[in-house]
């Protein structure tokens, strides 16, 4: 065994896969044969039946149904309908989730609505290490005095005060994979009289989420990562029912109107979660998420979590044997479904792995990120990926200048 004493073997991996209750889901995805895909946290894989769903929407609903499909094919109901199907994945009772727009746009809507629910307070707290679009969107908010954990104070407790209106945090950090204690943090924020907005981009589909039980106020999340909705899939938005009547989001388009087809010159918000909609949904990309949610209807999230932790723990044991430092918490309960390793040549090492068909990604400045999607990644895949990593490092092949060239998207 090349990894040295104590490191698990490929036989160990196969033994774990043999008793994997989620093993059967792999065949519900179409993946290239020569690829080990550890980037489903950035762009999820293609569900095998998605092309047929897309074909149906294009050829039958659009081609034949034409404008009649708004009613007859249920197009008009898709933002609310997909929200209902997604709700169990985030622990939300009916009527609190809609699918619409992008995560960035939905952040703007819920953050503005939340700020307006706390008149007299002007501070928004977030975290300096947040995914950049979350931080950039907070810069566009008016009014907001923004303070960042890790820059203006070390911790949330340092920054919370009686001017805090809203706290925005990622449930799982995109770079380190650290998982926040949603219940405890939400309680801490509420104790200061502020509202809590969760970004679920790196946790939805990776672990069970309990928005209602934790008392969360608002949340947003991605359709194209662990959910497998396809490139550019629409995002989703959660607003707790107790806020619906008072909440005023800023992008007051006709799809959020109480009576869009009354064509009134004045805006009046829909009752319920519908007031968070804005304009015409991009229906072709809704079809991809619609198909992806068929798979999720059959999934037990406790099993997802158990397998996710088994995969990440297995990878960590293998990479520990390589002496690679990790920025991901070692305590399983404190991490999402990824392992992030540091290496001075992280970018080139990731490129060398991709050349071998092992797809992970790089996050500045020196992090190699490997996402483990329990629906279609096996322990044997994890073993083979770690073995490829060992070879890339041992051979020094990552030092080849061609692996240093950067594309527009890293
Ligand atoms: C992926 C991701 C986004 C993506 O936002 P888009 O509007 O879809 O580009 C936002 N926030 C976080 C935390 C993410 O991980």
Automatic annotation (TrEMBL):
Reaction(s) this enzyme catalyzes, per UniProt: L-kynurenine + H2O = anthranilate + L-alanine + H(+); 3-hydroxy-L-kynurenine + H2O = 3-hydroxyanthranilate + L-alanine + H(+)
What's the name of its gene? kynU
* Group of enzyme by EC: hydrolase
Q: What is this protein called?
A: Kynureninase
Cellular component, GO annotation:
cytoplasm
Q: Does the keyword Cytoplasm apply?
A: no
A Pfam family annotated for this chain is KYNU_C
Which organism does this record belong to?
Answer: Streptacidiphilus fuscans
Top-rank taxon, per record = Bacteria
Similarity comment text for this entry? Belongs to the kynureninase family.
Q: Which InterPro entries match?
A: Kynureninase, PyrdxlP-dep_Trfase, PyrdxlP-dep_Trfase_major, PyrdxlP-dep_Trfase_small
């Amino acid at each position: 065994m090349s990894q040295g004493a104590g490191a698990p073997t490929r036989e160990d991996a196969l033994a774990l896969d043999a008793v994997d209750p989620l093993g059967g889901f792999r065949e519900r995805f179409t993946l290239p044969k020569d690829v080990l895909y550890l980037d489903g946290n950035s762009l999820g894989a293609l569900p095998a039946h998605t092309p047929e769903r897309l074909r149906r929407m294009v050829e039958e609903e659009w081609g034949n149904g034409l404008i009649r499909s708004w009613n007859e094919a249920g197009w008009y109901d898709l933002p609310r309908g997909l929200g209902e199907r997604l709700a169990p994945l985030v622990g939300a009772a009916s009527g609190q989730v809609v699918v619409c727009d992008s995560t960035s746009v939905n952040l703007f809507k819920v953050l503005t609505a939340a700020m307006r629910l706390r008149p007299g307070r002007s501070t928004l707290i977030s975290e300096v290490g947040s995914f950049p679009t979350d931080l950039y969107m907070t810069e566009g908010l008016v009014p907001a005095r923004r303070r960042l954990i890790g820059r203006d104070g070390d911790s949330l407790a340092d920054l919370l005060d009686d001017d805090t209106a809203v706290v925005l945090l990622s449930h799982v950090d995109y770079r380190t994979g650290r998982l926040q204690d949603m219940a405890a943090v939400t309680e801490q924020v509420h104790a200061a009289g502020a509202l809590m907005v969760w970004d679920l981009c790196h946790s939805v589909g990776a672990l069970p989420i309990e928005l209602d039980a934790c008392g969360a106020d608002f949340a947003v999340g991605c359709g194209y990562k662990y959910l497998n909705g396809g490139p550019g899939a629409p995002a989703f938005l959660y607003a707790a029912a107790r806020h619906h009547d008072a909440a005023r989001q800023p992008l007051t388009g006709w799809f959020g109107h109480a009576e869009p087809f009354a064509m009134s010159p004045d805006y009046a918000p829909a009752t319920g979660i519908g007031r968070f909609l804005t304009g015409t949904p991009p229906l072709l990309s809704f079809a991809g998420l619609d198909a992806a949610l068929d798979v999720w209807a059959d999934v037990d999230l406790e099993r997802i979590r158990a397998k996710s932790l088994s995969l990440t723990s297995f990878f960590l044991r293998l990479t520990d044997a390589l002496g690679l430092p990790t920025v991901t918490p070692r305590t399983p309960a404190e991490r999402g479904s990824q392992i992030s390793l540091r290496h001075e040549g992280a970018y080139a090492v990731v490129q060398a792995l991709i050349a071998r068909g092992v797809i992970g990604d790089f996050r500045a400045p020196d992090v190699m990120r490997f996402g483990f999607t329990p629906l279609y990644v096996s322990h044997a895949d994890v073993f083979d990926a770690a073995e490829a990593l060992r070879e890339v490092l041992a051979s020094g092949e990552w030092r080849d200048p061609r692996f240093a060239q950067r594309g527009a998207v890293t």
